[in-house]
Amino acid sequence: MSTPPFEPRHADFVGRVRASFELQGAMQTLGARLGLLAPGAVDIELPWAPGLTQQHGFLHAGMVATALDSACGYAGFTLMASDAAVLTIEFKINLLAPAKGERFRMEGRVLKPGRTITVCEGRAFAIDGNQEKLVATMGCTLMAITGRDNIQG
Fold it and tell me: How confident is the prediction for the chain on average, in pLDDT?
């Protein structure tokens, strides 16, 4: 998925995203790690694990949605102002195929950044060996939150 060239509004957007990601217990639970990290684009990678599956052994749709939501959220966060935090306000997921693979890559890409509202698109890929299969897509809307001491990063 290509991303239009965007200019980050925070000089150390990479460090800022990494620090926030480290605070996410959900991503730690999934065994997820950051992959690509660029202005308007973030990939999250995670391995298949039995504790993340549904009854047929596929990665559970809730896990796919969780990781895609974070990939989109962090893609938007790369372009937000220094005093902004990010929260998802809406997403829609399309599950296209069973999430069956050795590992997974969730891509978050900004379509339209804004001062308050940012629109993103996500894609989830199941990876087996060198084969990748698109298993889900997501449309995601984010809000930049400012002026709240209890919501940062």
Answer: 94
